[in-house]
C-alpha cells in the first residue's frame, strides 16, 4: 500500500533509510530523523552518518538531545576547573544565559560545576565526542508533478548552495514505473534521486537509485566555517534525541481509533475511523472524530499499565532504542 498522505510516505522513507543506508555505497552506520533543519529550511528526512565508536561515547552522555545552549557549555568545558567565562568562547548573547545553561548541564551530569567565591567554575566529565560523520538531507515527494518538481528544484538548489548537508536526495514513488525523466532533468545534478516502490511495504530493497548524488563535503584540506559546524551539530543532536518515531508526541495514540499498522518492515500510524494514514495535523485533540480510549481498556491487562496509547508509545520508544544499539554495531 502507498499511504496517500505525504506524512505516511515520509515515515516509510525514514524506515527505508534506517534499513538500507547507504543506498548506493553499502552499509553505513546512521540514524534517521525527520522534519529538522534551520529556520529557513526544514528537511523531510535527515540521515546522520556516524562514527560508531564516537557514537557509543555520545550515548554515554544520555538519550536526550543536548540543546544549543548546553552544547556550547559541554563542548567548551575544560579538563581543569576554570571560571566558566574564561573557559567558554564568547556566546554572542548575555553571559547570564550561559550561567543558566551551565546549571542545567551540571544538573544533567554532562559537566561538573562548583563555586569559588562568587565565581562559578566548570570542568568536563568527559570530552564531547566527534560523532557526526556526514549529514544527508532527503526531500520526499511521492507524487512528482510539474509544479512539485519546480518547487523542489529550487529547494534542493538552496540545499546544495547552503553547504549544510554533505549530500541531498529527492525520494519519489514509482510503483514499478520509471520516474518521468523530463521531471528529473529539472533537479540540480548534485541531488541524488531515490525511486521508491512501497507498494508491498518497506524493506531494504524497496528503492532504486535513479541518479547518484554528488558529495558536497568540503574538499580535502578545506573546512566548514565554525558557525556551520555548530549548526550541523545542533541538527545532529536534535536528530539523535528525536529519531523519526516521535510522531506519537504530537498525534493522539490515546484515541480509540489510533493504530499502528505494519507496512512491510515499517510500523506507521493508521486511523481506523478515517481508514487511512492520518496526517500529523489532523490527528490531534481538535479532530472531530477523536474519541479517548475508554478507561476500562487501561485496567484489562492491555497493555500491563497505561492503556493502548501508552503501550504504543512504549513500542515506538523501544524500537528507537533498538535502532540506536544497531547503529553501534554496523561495521
Ligand atoms: S479519529 Fe482523529 S484523533 Fe483519532 S486516530 Fe483518527 S485522526 Fe487521530
UniProtKB/TrEMBL annotation:
Residues 318-331 have a biased composition (Basic and acidic residues). Residues 283-331 are annotated as: Disordered. InterPro entries: DUF5787. This is DUF5787 family protein. It comes from Halorubrum ejinorense.
Amino acid at each position: 500500500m502507498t499511504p496517500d498522505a505525504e506524512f505516511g510516505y515520509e515515515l516509510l522513507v525514514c524506515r527505508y533509510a534506517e534499513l538500507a543506508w547507504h543506498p548506493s555505497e553499502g552499509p553505513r552506520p546512521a540514524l534517521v530523523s525527520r522534519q529538522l533543519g534551520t529556520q529557513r529550511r526544514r528537511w523531510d528526512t535527515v540521515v546522520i552518518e556516524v562514527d560508531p565508536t564516537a557514537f557509543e561515547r555520545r550515548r554515554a552522555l544520555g538519550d536526550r538531545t543536548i540543546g544549543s545552549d548546553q552544547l556550547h557549555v559541554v563542548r567548551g568545558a575544560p579538563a581543569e576547573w576554570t571560571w566558566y567565562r574564561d573557559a567558554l568562547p564568547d556566546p554572542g548573547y548575555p553571559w547570564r544565559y550561559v550561567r543558566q545553561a551551565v546549571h542545567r548541564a551540571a544538573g544533567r551530569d554532562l559537566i561538573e560545576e562548583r563555586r569559588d567565591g562568587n565565581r562559578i567554575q566548570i570542568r568536563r566529565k568527559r570530552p564531547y565526542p566527534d560523532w557526526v560523520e556526514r549529514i544527508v538531507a532527503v526531500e520526499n515527494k511521492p507524487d512528482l508533478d510539474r509544479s512539485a518538481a519546480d518547487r523542489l528544484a529550487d529547494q534542493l538548489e538552496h540545499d546544495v548552495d547552503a553547504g549544510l548537508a554533505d549530500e541531498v536526495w529527492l525520494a519519489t514513488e514509482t510503483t514499478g514505473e520509471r520516474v518521468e525523466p523530463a521531471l528529473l532533468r529539472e533537479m540540480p545534478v548534485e541531488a541524488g534521486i531515490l525511486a521508491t516502490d512501497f507498494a508491498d511495504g518497506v524493506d531494504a530493497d524497496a528503492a532504486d537509485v535513479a541518479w547518484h548524488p554528488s558529495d558536497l563535503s568540503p574538499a580535502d584540506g578545506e573546512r566548514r566555517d565554525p558557525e556551520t559546524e555548530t549548526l550541523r551539530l545542533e541538527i545532529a543532536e536534535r536528530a539523535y534525541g528525536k529519531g523519526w518515531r516521535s510522531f506519537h508526541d504530537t498525534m493522539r495514540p490515546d484515541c480509540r481509533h489510533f493504530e499502528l499498522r505494519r507496512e512491510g518492515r515499517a510500523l506507521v500510524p493508521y486511523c481506523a475511523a478515517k481508514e487511512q494514514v492520518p496526517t500529523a495535523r489532523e490527528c490531534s485533540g481538535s479532530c472531530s472524530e477523536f474519541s479517548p480510549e475508554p478507561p476500562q481498556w487501561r485496567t484489562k491487562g492491555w497493555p500491563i499499565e497505561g492503556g493502548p496509547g501508552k503501550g504504543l508509545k512504549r513500542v515506538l520508544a523501544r524500537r528507537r532504542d533498538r535502532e540506536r544499539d544497531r547503529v553501534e554495531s554496523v561495521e
